[in-house]
Amino acid sequence: MKAVQITSYDGPDALSYDEVPTPEPKQGQISLDVEFAGANYVEALFAGGLVPAPLPWVPGIEVSGRVRALGEGVTGFTSGDQVAALTINDGGGYGQVAVTQAGLVAPLPAGMDPALAAVVPSNTTTALITLERIAHLAPGEHVLVHAAAGGLGSQFGQVARFLGADRVVGVVGSQEKRQAALDLGYDEVWLRAEIDNAKPNQFDVIADPVSGPGRRTSLGLLRLGGRLLAVGDAAQAGDQGISSNMLWFGGIGVLGFNLGTLSAADPNLVGSYLRRALNLVATGEITVHLTEQAPIQDAPRVLAALRGGTTLGKTVLVHETT
C-alpha cells in the first residue's frame, strides 16, 4: 500500500509518500481501507520529533473508511461496513490501510458524509469524555475554553453548551480567530492577552489544550470547586509547576486527560463516546467545520499550517483508492 511516512524528525516538509507493507489485524483488531484521514496538530509534532515515535512511522490518529478484515475474536462488523475509527495508539491513518482495536471503530450514522466523519473521532470524542466523565460538568456551570477557535477548542465550547453550561467563554490569539469563535456560539471571546486582567473566580471549568503561563493564570479564574482541565501542550511550553497549596486553599483542582492513554486502557469506553460523538455531529447538535479536503500527498503543507497555528476548522486528507 501507499502511505505518508515520517522517516526523520526534520518537520512536515520531510514527510515522504512511499510504498510500505500492508498491516494485518491481530486478535481483537480491525483493519480498514482508509478513505479519509483527519489532519491534527499532534501529527505535526510527530513529524518534528516533539512527540517521540519509532521511525519510520505512518501517522494519523482518526479516519473513516470501510472494514477490510477482522482479527480473531472480533464480531459485530462485516467486510465493507462504512465506519469511522480512532487509530491513535498505533497510528497509520495516513496509510491506505490502517489497523486499530475493534473497540475504537464505530459505524457511520445513516447518511453521514464520510469525509466529515473522519474529523470527529479525536476532538469531539475528547470534549465529550473530558467534560462529562472527567470534569463532571453540571448544568448551569460557567466554562472557559482556551484556543477556542481551534479544532479541539471549537468542540469543547459546543459540547459544554450541549451538556447544559450556562456561560461559555473562549480565549483566542488573534482578532481573526475571535470572530471565528464568536461564530461558533461563544457568549464572549477574549484575546489571550486579556486574561491577565480578567476578574477572578468566574468559572467552574476551564479547558486548556495550550499550556504555558496561561495555565497557571487560569487557576485564579476558577470558583470554589472549579476544575482546570489539562488536555494538551500546543504551546510546547513543557511542564507548568502548580502549587498544591494553591489548590488546597483555593478549593480547586487540576485534572489531566490524554485520549491516547485512555484509548489504550479502555478502548470500549472510548468507543462508546465515539459513537455518541458521531451521532451528535450527524444530527447537527454539534458542528465540526470541515474547511478543506486535500489529497494525502499534501500532508506536508497541511501539517506545516497546523504547526504554524494559521488554520481554522478541520482539514481532511483524501486517500487514493487501493
Write the SSE topology.
Elements: E1 2-5, E2 16-19, E3 29-38, H1 41-47, E4 62-70, E5 82-86, E6 97-101, E7 105-107, H2 114-117, H3 123-134, E8 142-146, H4 151-162, E9 167-172, H5 175-183, E10 188-191, E11 203-208, H6 213-219, E12 222-230, H7 244-250, E13 253-256, H8 259-265, H9 267-282, E14 290-295, H10 299-308, E15 314-318
Helix pairs in contact: 1-10, 3-4, 3-9, 8-9
List unreliable stretches of 5+ residues. none
The average pLDDT score comes to 94
Instruction: Provide the CATH topology of the largest domain.
Output: Quinone Oxidoreductase, Chain A, domain 1
Report strand %.
25-35%
**Broad structural category:** alpha/beta
What is the CATH C-level name of the largest domain?
Alpha Beta
Shape: globular
Distance linking N and C termini: 7 Å
Radius of gyration: 19 Å
CATH homologous superfamily label of the largest domain: Medium-chain alcohol dehydrogenases, catalytic domain
H-E string: EEEHEEEEHHEHEHEEHEHEHHEHE
Estimate percent helicity.
Answer: 25-40%
Our count of domains comes out at 2
Question: Regarding quaternary structure, how should these chains be classified?
Answer: single chain
Please provide the count of β strands: 15
Number of helices: 10
Mind describing the biggest β-sheet? 7 strands, mixed
Examine the secondary-structure arrangement and name the CATH architecture of the largest domain: Alpha-Beta Complex
